[in-house]
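Notes for week 9. Today we move from apo structures to complexes. The key idea is that a small molecule is not decoration. When we ask for a structure prediction with flavin-adenine dinucleotide present, the ligand SMILES becomes part of the input, just like the chain. The input block below holds both the sequence and the ligand string. Read it once before you look at the output, and try to guess where the molecule might sit.
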Amino acid sequence: MASALPSSIVVVGSGLAGFGVLRELRRLSPDAKLTMVTLEDGHFYSKPALSTALSKGKTAETLITSNAAKMAAQLKLDARIGREALAIDCPSKALLTTGGPVPYDALVLATGATPVRPSLDGEAAHRAIPVNQLEHYARLRKELPDGGRVLIMGSGLVGTEFANDLISSGYHPVVVDLLPLPLAQLVPAAVGEKVRDALAAEGVEWHLGRRITAIDYKVPAPGYVATLDDGTVIEADLVLSAVGLRPNVALAAEAGLDVGLGIKVNAYGQTSDPHVFAIGDCAEYEHGLSAYVTPIMAAARGIAATALGTPTEIRFPPLSVQVKTTLLPINLLPPPRSLAGQWQCLDDDAQGSKHQFIDTDGIVRGYVLTRDKCEQRMEMDAKVGEFA
Ligand SMILES: Cc1cc2nc3c(=O)[nH]c(=O)nc-3n(C[C@H](O)[C@H](O)[C@H](O)COP(=O)(O)OP(=O)(O)OC[C@H]3O[C@@H](n4cnc5c(N)ncnc54)[C@H](O)[C@@H]3O)c2cc1C
């Protein structure tokens, strides 16, 4: 494997996907020339830790588990920190960056996704802090007053985890979502109700089935005032925005590569140009987007081998996700978004609940476990099996 071609591989991005594929590349090939181009500062941290960081007393600095210099030395990288990838010249196999062109034999796009900014009225709407990067968390820590009231837009995985973390750390989260229940796109309604009630019992305030129309500055300052579509007014010291992410596809689209919701890849992680790969939050696999850690690690293994000259299909294991709501522990395997089917409750008692998602052919394609029943994760994983 060490002598396999191509020898020069360029990776754009220093998130879990970028570093994930770089680690695999270096593991398979001690000699390949590896270049990383990133807009960020190149430190390594685990993004899922952002939504449990407050209760663990972490700062943005202490979330970093390995700094840029250490990562570059460990992986023997040519690290182009703070550089932007501007364009891909596919015919010449060159990545154009703010630091000049970088030639490649294989290019891996690990460019992540950008937080969606809801279009809202109000002079302070732009002050809402997204929660997708270390620097967003640094801003949250800087602007959050002790015991402050925090308005969270969005009750998906990230918004709900932040509500759990804030209430567990002595703050006062107020969550607003258009949908009627938290985690509504991931779990059956019965579980959403339990999550809502478990967090409400600790003090989380929910405004579900409601839309924020405007965010203005509070008078007198400091603080914010949000107005909902039913006229409710919510005062807060800080606003977090967790309403979703949009895959970064511009580089690929401008280079003429196939894009859909994300950058489209085949079973090997290759885009419509076989020398260019995509991985992580920016990629659209054959089964759709998959913005979680487990598929990133699986894709990193396949892509690294293929990029080094051994075509290797990505094998996705069951993509179980631990929802970090410590007030109601949940383990889930979300069914693909486009899949038709229904949830079935298998068990619901004082130890927790167990639901499975059955597709129209009667095949188990997802599950949700709560509380002590999270221990049955491996059994449920086996039931769902592997799909690729
Ligand atoms: C709060 C939170 C909690 C989460 N919890 C979980 C969890 O419990 N379990 C789970 O499985 N998943 C979880 N996720 C999802 C998971 O963390 C993400 O799927 C994963 O981290 C995405 O990694 P990535 O490398 O694809 O993207 P990113 O981390 O966004 O990295 C993208 C990189 O690309 C760089 N970049 C982009 N464009 C350019 C350019 N033009 N030039 C140069 N560089 C560029 C950026 O600077 C960045 O370094 C969570 C996500 C969040 C936000």
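Residues 12-18, 37-40, 47-48, 50-51, 84-85, 110-112, 131-132, 158, 248, 251, 280-281, 291-294, 321-322, 324 surround flavin-adenine dinucleotide (CB under 6 Å).
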